[in-house]
Amino acid sequence: MGFTTGFLSGITITTSLLYLTVLSQNSTRATQRTLLSQQRALLTQTYDPVPSLPEPRAHTENAGLSEMAKDRWNADVERLARWASNINWDEVRERVEVGAGNVWRKVREAGEPMRERVENAEVEEEKPKEVAVTVTPVEKSRWGWGKSS
User: Fold this and answer.
1) Pick from 46, 47, 70, 86: most CB atoms within 10 A?
2) Kindly report the CA angle at 101 between 99 and 104, in degrees rounded to 5?
3) What is the dihedral angle through the alpha carbons of 41, 46, 48, 53, rounded to the nearest 10 degrees?
4) What is the spatial distance between Cα 51 and Cα 43, in angstroms, rounded to a whole number?
């Protein structure tokens, strides 16, 4: 082996060993860093626990147009049901009876003069008027439609 070959072989072997040593140390240091970080977190949690996360808030969706319409409808139905349950129906019936009696009395009073007029009036029968109608003959075209001449 010559001088240059030996020299270059020595440099290659030395740099390879140096590279592998540094690579091994970096790998070992990364593993130790991970282990120390885990141990520190474990010890910290024993004397200073991490506060629990707040409970997630419920997600609410805005009601759509149809749901809003249903809610309004239901509110109106409830309001009308409450109104109907709070009415004194006996009083309403009595007021309707009195009103119907007044209307019937006025109709009978208004009908008596009309009956007298009908009995005294002479009824004339009207004769229907005669109307002249002329009919024009229709000529048939080659497509079968009517064509007036």
Assistant:
1) 70
2) 110
3) 80
4) 15
